[in-house]
Each structure stands twice: as C-alpha cells, then as structure tokens.
Amino acid sequence: MNTRQHQLEGVCVAIVLALTTFSAQAHSGIDAGWLHPLTGLDHFLAMVAVGAWSAQIGGRAIWLVPGAFVLCMLFGGLIGMSMIDLQGLEVGIALSVIALGAAIALHQRMPTVVATLGVGLFGTLHGYAHGYEMPIIDDKIGYTLGFLATTATLHLIGALGALGLMRIQGGGRILRGLGVICSMCGGWIMFTAVGNL
C-alpha cells in the first residue's frame, strides 16, 4: 500500500470519527463540548498543528499521530473531570504549541512511534484541560464526544491544509513559516502562563 493510500485512509477515518461524534452530541445544547477547543488559541493551534505535522511526516503517521492525540485526549479528559489537580498545566500546553510549531518549521520527520508518543502526551494535557473546565452539566458523554469531534476536525483541517500546501510550488516553505508563527504564538502563551503563576 503506497503513501497516498495511507493518507486517504487517514482522512477517511478522521471524517467518519468527526461525523459520528458530531451527530452523537448534536442535542447536548449550549454546554456541548464541541465549542471548547475553539475558545482558546492554545488548543486551536496545537490541534491544527498535529494534523499538519502528521501530513509532513507522511505514511501511517497521518492517521496514527492524530489518532494518538484524540485517544490520549479522552484519557486526559477523564482525569480532568475527576478534578485531580495538575500543576503547571498551562505551561505544558504552551510547550506543546511551541514544540509542534517547531517540528513543522524544522520539518522534523522523526519515527512515527516517537511522534505518536510525544503527541499522545500533548493530547493528555489538552484533554485534561477540557475535562477540568467542563461546565456543570448532566450530559458528560455528549460534552466529551463534542470536544473529541472538534479535535478530530481540526486535525483533519491541519492535515488537508498541509497536504495542499506541499503540492504547490513553494508551499513547503509556507508551511514551515506557519510552523514558526505557531511556535512564536506558543512562546507568547508561555509568557502569559508564567506571568499568571
């Protein structure tokens, strides 16, 4: 199976996941978790960057890396919902944005297993934040499916955007430039997080 077929598989899996989870939480009301990943620049950048970096790595990484993020995000969300206090969370999330942006900027093609493990750690941190900040609602399952669906959709947007850029003249350079911007935003988020400690 060639790289293009692997990429198509990954895109299909992400679309199916997004559609099924969105439909599962469609009646959760205003407190549904689908909006939460869109309310913070840190979450938004990290999730799009995961998709873009997975496309840069190519092969099985295009579905394994985002898949690990979503799975570990679920795990982190469950920990967060249990209200276990996690110190330095905002710093860890800011580091994820810096690291993912730097990986794109430097076009780091590390082994898929290493990228998957690293992204899994980031997913746990982001999931914890979503679970910990969950509003008081009865539909915890709907909320969880909502933020997982938005995450998968942002991964898909990042992957498709990166694949599109890599197909045009100079697109790889543009993608790496966007990685630099992402990392700089992460630095600003880190500065803000440290200032609030």
SSE map:
Blueprint (H helix, E strand, L loop, with lengths): L2 H22 L16 H17 L3 H21 L7 H17 L6 H21 L7 H27 L4 H25 L2
Helix pairs in contact: 1-3, 1-6, 2-3, 2-4, 2-5, 2-6, 2-7, 3-5, 3-6, 4-5, 4-7, 6-7
Taken together, the total number of domains comes to 1
Determine the structural class based on helices, strands and strand pairing: mainly alpha
Mean pLDDT: 84
The termini sit apart by 50 Å
Total strands: the figure is: 0
Q: Give the SSE order as H and E letters.
A: HHHHHHH
Number of helices: 7
Largest sheet: none
- Report the sheet-strand fraction: under 5%
The shape, in one word, is globular
CA radius of gyration is 16 Å
Helix content: over 70%
Low-confidence stretches: 15-31
Task: Explain how this protein is built.
This protein has 197 residues and is mostly helical. The protein has one domain. Helices cover 76% and strands 0% of the residues. The chain has seven helices and no strands. The longest helix has 27 residues, at 140-166. It is globular.
